[in-house]
Amino acid sequence: xxxxxxxxxxxxxxxxxxxxxxxxxxxxxxxxxxxxxxxxxxxxxxxxxxxxxxxxxxxxxxxxxxxxxxxxxxxxxxxxxxxxxxxxxxxxxxxxxxxxxxxxxxxxxxxxxxxxxxxxxxxxxxxxxxxxxxxxxxxxxxxxxxxxxxxxxxxxxxxxxxxxxxxxxxxxxxxxxxxxxxxxxxxxxxxxxxxxxxxxxxxxxxxxxxxxxxxxxxxxxxxxxxxxxxxxxxxxxxxxxxxxxxxxxxxxxxxxxxxxxxxxxxxxxxxxxxxxxxxxxxxxxxxxxxxx
Length: 292
Ligand SMILES: C[C@](O)(CO)[C@H](O)COP(=O)(O)OP(=O)(O)OC[C@H]1O[C@@H](n2ccc(N)nc2=O)[C@H](O)[C@@H]1O
Ligand SMILES: Nc1ncnc2c1ncn2[C@@H]1O[C@H](COP(=O)(O)OP(=O)(O)OP(=O)(O)O)[C@@H](O)[C@H]1O
Hints:
Number of helices: 9
Shape: globular
Structural class: alpha+beta
Order of helices and strands: EEEHEHHHEEEHHHHEEHE
Number of strands: 10
Helix content: 25-40%
Number of domains: 2
Bound molecules: 4-diphosphocytidyl-2-C-methyl-D-erythritol, adenosine-5'-triphosphate
Low-confidence stretches: 206-213
Mean pLDDT: 94
Distance between the termini: 27 Å
Radius of gyration: 19 Å
CATH topology of the largest domain: Ribosomal Protein S5, domain 2
């Protein structure tokens, strides 16, 4: 690992997710609130002068050419004409395809770190546009703070959220995002909400009762459909709901419960059935690479 530098790529959860329309290309227009978590993949990067982009470790289920880290580095190289290269070691901790944005976060971390280490100094707005070519959630991770998002997730506004801890469970199923968005049962014309309405509700911190701070008006509209197709997601959500207002993140399969303190989160987590993978995380206010 000599000469490699480590860069963190945090997970995210969607505190709510509404579908408010559909674009002519079939993509759905969303409203969502993204929250960063202190649960990370670590991307180790060594810059080289060979011009070659190379992943130096195996990642189960992700061939090198499809890895979003490699694709992000190649995209940045092509966009800028940079002659430098990079060796990338991807240390995955965030479950893949779990609605926690791991792949998108890895890609954002590569764009942010190589922009510096290759001394490209592209402005943040340019990286946001590049990031969108790699995935709808990538701009959020480049944005740097918790965010209210619209469009397909690329129209971002900063969101101030109170301190909170999350119990996250990821059932061992692969949910196809495309399959869920294509489901006929999905409500696609929810009346858009305002960031002010969400912020008002999100600021209401409950003193003693767990998980009451996300109001019923702000739900994950993919949750019902996912639960009807994947009983494992429903089971883990039902389990968490014993303790409060649990939600699904993104298009699943991960589910989470927001609580006010680490003690409560750990107490709930310790009772989880052994077959559930999960973790406890603190909500972040800023991306670790973009802290001032
Ligand atoms: C739902 C979220 O997890 C919220 O954070 C993300 O918007 C999903 O973003 P993503 O993982 O980048 O989604 P993709 O893997 O590109 O989407 C797979 C497929 O889901 C459908 N899709 C996805 C996002 C969106 N806003 N509308 C869609 O209709 C499209 O058919 C797309 O081809
Ligand atoms: N570095 C990477 N890490 C994780 N997945 C990757 C990576 N590169 C490519 N992928 C592919 O991207 C897919 C989605 O990964 P990711 O973990 O971002 O999904 P997700 O958490 O469901 O994302 P989202 O919340 O954005 O829908 C994976 O199933 C995998 O095939």
